[in-house]
Amino acid sequence: MKKIIGLFAVLFLSLPALANQLDQITPNFKKVRYSYDAKHTPKIEAPDKVKAGEWFDVKITIGAGGEHPSLMEHHVHWIALYKNDVELARVYLNAVQAKPQVTFTIALDESTTLKVMEEPNHTAPWVAMKNIRVEK
User: Fold this and answer.
1) Which DSSP symbol is given to 68?
2) Cα(first)–Cα(last) distance of the chain, in Å?
3) How many CB atoms lie within 10 A of CB 76?
4) SS3 at position 30
5) Nearest to 33 by CA among 1, 64, 2
6) Which of 29, 41, 30 has its CA nearest to residue 128?
7) What is the rounded distance in angstroms from the CA atom of residue 2 to the CA atom of residue 60?
8) Where in the chain are the domains?
9) pTM exceeding 0.85
């Protein structure tokens, strides 16, 4: 019982420190970015229309206007693919050894908006979207 009370005391006393840390996060890390940036906006390559239930590739390259670096000090942590707001797939990348590019193979049953989100190590996530029309 003393251990449990002690654990709660540690957690309770840590809350002000945690709140102070959250206040120190820069605005660059708080808000997802939908604007265009040549090296951060994901580039989505996929057909404009597909047949319902058939597999197709969605190639994602980070950097719609140029290649994003993969350095220890400047790299992409992960890339995720969403159907509307439902995550379909995610890949985690290692700095230096992984190029920020991935191909997911998916199938859709209805027209939708694909959303790609990527998170670099120095800013909030960046987002790009593409509409896909599904023919029955």
Assistant:
1) P
2) 62
3) 27
4) coil
5) 64
6) 41
7) 52
8) 31-135
9) no
Tell me how far apart the 2 most distant CA atoms of the chain are, in Å. Answer: 63
Quick check: helix, strand or coil at residue 130? strand
Span 84-125, pLDDT tens digits: 889 999 999 998 899 999 999 999 999 999 999 999 988 889
pLDDT, tens digit, 9 for 90 and up, residues 7-27: 455 445 555 554 544 444 445
Tokens standing for 102? 């991935």
Architecture of the structural domain at 31-135 = Sandwich (2.60)
Residue 79 neighbours by CB under 8 Å, 6+ apart: 42, 60, 62, 90, 91, 93, 100, 102, 116, 117, 118
Helices (H), the chain: 2-23
Amino acid at the residue 81: L
Distance CA 44, CA 31 (A): 21
